[in-house]
Amino acid sequence: MDDKLKNKNFIQLYTDGYGLPALCTLLKEKSLAFNILMYFLYHMDLKNTVTHPLTQEDIGKVLHVKKQSVSVALKYLCDWHFIWLFSYSRKTNYYVINPNLFFKSYMFNKKSIPVLVDQSYLLSLSPYQMTKPDNLVRNLYFEKTKELFSMNKIQLDTYKHSKDIYYKPHTGRATYQNSNFTQLYKQALPALVPLTQESSVATKILLYLVTKMDNYNSTDVLTLSEIGLACSSNLNQVSTSLKILLKHNFIYRYAYSSKLNCYIVNPQVFFKSTAPTKEKLLTDYQEFYSLPYEAPSSQKNNLYLQNKKLFKLNLLDLHHL
To answer: Which ranges carry the Plasmid replication protein RepL domain (predicted)?
Structure first.
């Protein structure tokens, strides 16, 4: 294939029923864990491994938090199968990201992902999916979010009046071909951290819009109440969050009326089609040539600039911080 027709430097984020709802649940329950996961994604190799051993102190330095907070967040990520780890020493670990959520290579390379012999079952589990399904360990917020994100307008309206949720169990990834994924660009990962710190609701709404976008990164016409219902947020939260996303160049809004809008997600952050389509989008919406927080009209966000610098820092140089 012509090199110009290829999208580059992205991570596959699986969206077939559990990927985006899992991230929304992680964001709600442990926002620091979400930010740690974004940092790991920035540094993982083709085997989904953060190849340089890290201490909890190292991670804390990058994200400006205490070691104890990092420890709690890492335990959550391990308990719910977002990551698993290999001990390098008493204080240092290698981290592996669950390939059923994120992956960077061809599906047949999944078998080369490191995992302990007695933990090989992890390769078939998605986040929040347990080896032996048990009502006592199900994450009900995740299952509710998963169902809400999958609903169309008619189903959402029915749910609004009934409040019934019907859980659909995930059947596993039995294919040898990558499919049903959205491209999450590595260059955009540092921007997601300050967004979560400014507004976790805005981040959740962004993930919901990604769920609903077509191959041109555009959603269907949506009302504030529909977004609020799907994201379990009130209208004021939705309105404020959309303003944040617009201000920082995560999305563009196309107004049909005072109450009806469709939203185009910045293709420099998330994308799901071919490189020529992306180039056309960038031509039609030139504000998207800039990453979030980097538009000429944007005010400088010191936290973003600091995160961008720290994310790019070679892992071997972390001890100099």
So the answer is: 178-300
CB contact at 8 A, 167 and 147: yes
* Alpha-carbon span 134 to 186, nearest angstrom: 36
Find, among 45, 51, 55, 43, the residue nearest to 89 by Cα: 55
Task: List, in order, residues 6 or more apart from 70 with CB less than 8 Å away.
Answer: 32, 36, 56, 59, 60, 63
Tokens describing residue 134? 């048990």
230: Cα within 13 Å, side-chain hemisphere: 30
**Between 238 and 301, whose confidence is greater?**
238
Confidence of residue 175 (pLDDT cuts 50, 70, 90): very low
Record the pTM.
0.85
Residue 226: give the domain boundaries: 3-320
pLDDT higher than threshold 70 for residue 178: no
Helix (H) or strand (E) holding 54: strand 49-55
DSSP 281-301: HHHHSGGGGSPTT-STTSPP-
Q: What is the DSSP letter of 92?
A: E
The CA distances from residue 308 to 16, 186, 190, 205, in Å, are 30, 11, 5, 23
> Which residue type sits at 302?
N
Q: Are 224 and 257 in contact (CB under 8 A)?
A: no
| Whole-number Å distance between alpha carbons of 16 and 211 | 9
Domain count, the chain: 1
Which among 311, 316, 321, 278 is positioned nearest to 39, based on CA atoms? 311
User: Alpha-carbon distance 102 to 110, whole Å?
Assistant: 11
Q: Residue 81 region, left (φ>0) first, then alpha (ψ -120 to 50), else beta? A: left
Which is nearest to 148 in space by CA: 232, 215, 214?
232
Q: Which residues are within 8 A (CB) of 85 and not within 5 positions of it... i.e. 6 or more apart?
A: 74, 78, 93, 94, 95, 96
Helix (H) or strand (E) holding 265: strand 261-265
**Contact between residue 18 and residue 126 where contact means Cβ atoms under 8 Å apart:** yes
